[in-house]
TrEMBL record:
Domain Competence protein CoiA C-terminal: 230-357
Short name of any one Pfam family annotated for the protein: CoiA_C
Coiled-coil segments on the chain, per record: none
Domain Competence protein CoiA-like N-terminal positions: 17-63
Protein name according to UniProt: Competence protein CoiA
InterPro entries named in the record: CoiA-like_N, CoiA_C, CoiA_nuc, Competence-induced_CoiA
Record domain Competence protein CoiA nuclease-like: where: 68-223
Residues annotated as transmembrane: none
Superkingdom per UniProt: Bacteria
Amino acid sequence: MFSAQSKEGRLICLADGYRADELKRMRERHTFYCPACHHKLDLKIGAKKLHHFAHKPGSACPVPHEPESLYHLKGKRLLYEWLGGQGLRPELEPYLRTIRQRPDLLVNSGTLKMAVEFQCANLNLKEYQKRTAGFLKLGIEPLWIVGGNRLKRSAGCFFQLSGFHWQFSMRNEKLPKLLFFCPDQKAFLVLEHLIPFLTNKTSASARYLPLQQTKWHDLTSSKSRSSYQLDAWKRNLLKFRTTPSRFLSKESKQIAALFYERFQIPLPFFPSEVFLPVPSGYIFAHPVYVWQGHLYLYLTTRSSFHMQSAVLYMDKLVQSKKLKLRRNQRETVVNAVCEYIQFLHEKGFLKKEEEVYYPAGPIFLKPRLAELLKRDERYFSE
Ligand SMILES: [Zn+2]
């Protein structure tokens, strides 16, 4: 960390630009204390690492203080300077006594009350929720920025997102969104329109924002889906159909067995209708063809159905734990089912009279790749 207190209670902030020789003299004359736990701190004057304070090994502090990486220190400092450059007068590592938390940065400017956490280390869901609730209790909106070193790109518009990422993506926003910052590249990366294809392979529209050219509100604004994303989705589906899957989850095997029993087709020949990129589909912690596969079987075994009964059917699968959710949000499940059925209606697969939906024609599924690809083209082009 960059901040410490002197014996007299004066706050010393290393991000304010001290020289190494100044700090060496200060270290000889003064003792530094943690503003949270008041234990003595070591002042590390680094040639490689940025100058920083550190707790002595094994000290008990109410604020978690995993050893800070250079990456974290650099990022925190750049963000501090960046916010300051926009006249937002950020505070670096202020200790908020009532909630015993110390955010990386705090912006308190007019109506804007925001804690910025630059998260580079692991953080479990419980700790994330505790910290978020702490800020909200004080009327402070938390903004979680994930370290760019925590992001892996698979290919094109696809990213490997785990539970660690998803936990940061779903506050207050109608649709999930993730914010990354890389101090080495001095740039943000905003991921929006997150649509999982496989459990750990998610399609997204990515925006690369160099720090120098980015304003605070650019981070919180939203952009529409890039056309490139749908194109990448189609190419990814082609790859899925033509290369064997190495690993299948229990739920994937179950849906594969159900389709084989009903239509005698294997997974790579599943119909285009179970790969629809719908905005709320992220709520299901499964490959897209698992949850849509269940819905597809439901609506093709009935001569007609109401939207409401399709929702209830999915509710039952969730309650019986056949389907797992990323977050317990029934509202989003309802949205996902409605978006799915509306998509099929728009593409002419379903017809609708009054409030009743029914398949537009008889369902034949044949394991012919050329036909499937033609159909994919029709479904996944703008
Ligand atoms: Zn401490």
